[in-house]
Write a structure and sequence with these properties.
Chain lengths: ~190, ~190
């Protein structure tokens, strides 16, 4: 029996992250990514239009999941309950593959200024997507922006704790971690004076 | 009498922003910036080590002012009162030059992906500087991060309203706008359910 092998898309993302960490984002070519993943360039282009899209595809998916969850929350849900629904939707879609990626993504980002900048845009894009969905539900701009920032902070904190390679024992589901982080942040926000 | 002329540093920033908008950040050289500002390259290098520093110098100054204001707040100040002190300190240091820069900075950022990414890093850097100062004052990590995000949102909202070229009449002081925005966001945060 062959060992389980991740599908082509996952192998491309892993290969790209390794190369970004080793030699930098700018210096890495599509040909190198395909070669490292033991795939052809044409397989790369069946999954991604270019190197940049390889990173932004995940962000767009995440923004879409958060917004979907917020919009699908019951009409009676408050802004924070709607954000909680968005976090559940997005966290529920993350797999062990995403968990394993966390530390390597972190290392690649730390090592490269362009990736740090792209990661910063990602956070801002997530907050904007959530705030827009909340305003569509009738929240004021100020309420939507504050609730969205709490959501982004919660997703980031939960994801970091879930994917922490130093943690002992089983990781469980990401949704457990994002709920815990969101509860902490809500409590902190409620106590702010 | 000659017309009032901004000093060399301000002229370099204005020239750079105009060129970034017209032809892009990547395509703009230090030589072009100096020429547009009617200054020499060596004058440029007396003020900035490179093109990148020209943008980051403002961010570092702003982060430092926000953190200073937070750390200088009375011991009895709550996290939100400390953030308010940070906003007052930073907003109080902004001049008519900064106000005029707002719309051009916005246009340059909209037109260029690298500048959008740098601007995103700037927001994250401001939040990190404020959160760190709040934690130094004894705030919990969660409280510090939430209060810092409110501060970043307030500074951004206040600055945009203050520098809006469509606004009628006198702009007044930035501090009026950041206080108003911070009050709105605090009220929204307090009402979140």
């Amino acid at each position: 029996m062959p060992r389980w092998k991740p599908d082509a898309r996952e192998r491309l993302v892993e290969a790209a992250l390794d190369l970004f960490t080793e030699q930098g984002y700018d210096e890495t070519t599509v040909a190198q990514i395909a070669e490292r993943a033991e795939l052809t360039r044409s397989t790369f282009f069946r999954h991604f239009s270019d190197k940049r899209e390889l990173l932004s595809a995940g962000q767009e998916m995440l923004s879409a999941l958060l917004a979907e969850g917020i919009l699908a929350a019951p009409d009676a849900a408050t802004p924070l309950e709607a954000v909680a629904a968005g976090l559940d939707r997005a966290a529920g879609a993350m797999t062990e593959f995403n968990r394993g990626l966390g530390p390597r993504m972190h290392a690649a980002i730390e090592a490269n200024e362009e990736l740090r900048a792209r990661n910063a845009m990602k956070s801002i894009g997530l907050a904007a997507a959530m705030a827009e969905a909340l305003q569509q539900r009738g929240a004021s701009e100020a309420a939507a922006r504050v609730a969205a920032e709490l959501g982004v902070l919660a997703f980031g904190m939960g994801y970091r704790r879930w994917s922490d390679p130093e943690r002992d024992g089983e990781a469980g589901e990401l949704v457990t971690y994002t709920r815990e982080a969101f509860a902490e942040l809500r409590a902190a926000a409620a106590e702010l004076r």
